[in-house]
Specification:
Length: 530
């Protein structure tokens, strides 16, 4: 039975009720802070990966494990969080996660080799991943009424979106001002505050020790094989030419076998580690699919724009951070407006507006050139920032707001993992297509830059004259190198334009799913406890 929620408040006096509401709100804010930290650490190392590589004496291929290990661990922890929250209680599980995440962050900052960093990042992902869905689930248990849930829902959506968007920006600023170690040490203060506040203020349920005795170890093993293998395959496949790399091929086979066994176990076990019955609810199933497609666009755009700015425009991490800050700042400022809109309008209409804003902002990027920089990216970033907030905040309400309270913890984990897997799938597709499209555009440019063409010979002559004072006799070879560099830059620019166009159309396609959602009732409160 859930405690401390609105039904139990009916016996309290006005003063006691206000105190209980304040405790509930402060406790929830502490959980939202923990969720923000865990999401932030996905992207915070992205802009500082070269500095971390130098500090750990790792190769370019090896250093990718700093991100991959965290993502693999987190994607396993997120669906598991529902079971552990019920078994240990929300308060105990969240405090263990927050304290463990903080200690693992300190360990990451103290890493002496790549191997130690990967181990500590796995621990950080396992512990941090549990805080994300637990905060979402607690929101619907603490605030079952749609009106009282409006502000916490806006806060959660705002923190979730801005954490992903601001991660590279914050990482760039911190590394430039201090060192890469502080990317992890930043978690120390918030982690302590978060753990203390949740322990002191949150008490919505009690442990269920009987769940420990029926813990499905086989289900956990199969789920880990499935999600871990799938995440690794999608993350490393594009970098290693997919199945020509032994490790990717092995993980793909492991994910296939683990997936088959996991779904068999989920439908046959008396007490599965992850209950998939929430997908029987039409709204939850459709919103999960939309969440997957949103994850594909959000994480891929967060990756694509910084890479273009770094490789083509020559931006440093701080300059890239300034461009990405536009999207994060727009999210932060537009969230309160979206919160009011979803109270006055049909949430499905708000989601539709959001998806159209994302698509419009992404279509604007299809006309990019090699000269694009901050000024050209401002409007697309603003449109996408507002669009992601418009889409994600009401989408969460439609996904979890009508489920019974006994299913919210489990469903929250499933809903959050769809977004992460969508991001992994989107990045895998985009990275694979980038390689193919770059080669295709390079061939097209090579066809139009043959030396038999007079304009090409004239351009090379101008370049040779420009380089003559500094290179002398080597100016001819230098002019050919300059032409090849320009061709490479143009091929990359055309490729990124193709990727923005593909992402824009994928967002437009997700609009077709919105009419499948049920029209929400006037009050979408979860049923009482269990």
């Amino acid at each position: 039975m859930y405690e401390g929620v609105l039904p139990g408040d009916s016996a309290l006096g006005d003063d006691a009720l206000r105190r209980a509401q304040r405790r509930r709100m402060w406790g929830f804010w502490a959980m939202a802070l923990g969720s923000f930290m865990a999401i932030l650490d996905i992207q915070i190392v992205a802009s500082s990966i070269n500095e971390i590589r130098a500090g750990l004496s790792a190769s370019i291929d090896e250093i990718q494990w700093v991100q991959t290990s965290y993502l693999v661990a987190e994607v396993i922890a997120i669906p598991l969080s529902g079971y552990l929250s019920r078994m240990l209680s929300t308060r105990i599980y969240f405090v263990i996660s927050a304290v463990g995440f903080t200690l693992a962050s300190i360990a990451c900052a103290s890493s002496w080799s790549l191997g130690s960093m990967v181990v500590f990042r796995v621990l950080q992902g396992l512990l941090g991943g549990g805080m994300i869905p637990t905060a979402f689930a607690t929101m619907f248990i603490m605030f079952p009424d749609q009106k009282t849930r409006a502000m916490p829902q806006v806060l959660t959506g705002m923190l979730t979106m801005t954490a992903s968007s601001l991660g590279p920006s914050i990482g760039g600023y911190v590394t430039d001002a201090l060192s890469w170690h502080w990317l992890f040490l930043l978690n120390l203060g918030p982690g302590i505050v978060c753990a203390w506040a949740v322990w002191s203020l949150v008490d919505i349920d009690k442990p269920q020790p009987q769940m420990f005795r029926r813990f499905d170890l086989w289900g956990l093993l199969f789920m880990s094989m499935f999600l871990g293998g799938l995440e690794y395959t999608l993350d490393d496949g594009p970098r290693n030419d997919w199945f020509s790399d032994d490790s990717v091929a092995i993980c793909a086979v492991m994910a296939s076998i683990g997936g088959a066994l996991f779904f068999w176990r989920a439908f046959s076990a008396a007490h599965p580690i992850v209950d998939l019955r929430s997908f029987r609810d039409r709204n939850f199933a459709v919103t999960s699919l939309v969440s997957t497609m949103l994850g594909m666009s959000m994480f891929t755009l967060l990756y694509l724009t910084p890479v273009f700015l770094g490789q083509v425009s020559g931006y440093n991490p701080l300059q890239i951070g300034e461009v990405m800050m536009v999207q994060g700042g727009t999210m932060f400022l537009s969230a309160p407006l979206v919160g009011r809109l979803q109270m006055k309008l049909d949430p499905r209409l708000v989601i539709t507006i959001g998806l159209m804003l994302i698509a419009a902002g992404t279509f604007l990027n299809t006309g990019l050139t090699a000269d694009w920089g901050y000024a050209q990216f401002v409007l697309p970033q603003m449109l996408r920032g507002a669009g992601f907030v418009c889409s994600f905040i009401p989408l969460t309400g439609l996904a979890l707001g009508t489920l019974p309270a006994s299913e919210v913890h489990n469903a929250s984990g499933l809903f959050n993992v769809t977004r992460n897997l969508g991001g992994a799938l989107g990045l895998a597709v985009i990275n694979t297509l980038i390689n193919h499209r770059t080669w295709l555009h390079w061939q097209q440019l090579a066809e139009s830059t043959r030396l038999s063409r007079a304009p090409v010979r004239e351009a090379l002559g101008n370049m040779r004259e420009l380089l003559q004072p500094s290179l002398g006799d080597a100016s001819q070879a230098g002019s050919i190198g300059m032409l090849a560099q320009q061709m490479q830059q143009q091929a990359a620019t055309m490729t990124y334009a193709d990727m923005y166009r593909l992402l824009a159309w994928s967002v437009m396609a997700s609009l077709l799913l919105v009419p499948l959602l049920h029209k929400p009732r006037a009050s979408a409160a979860p049923a009482g406890g269990h």
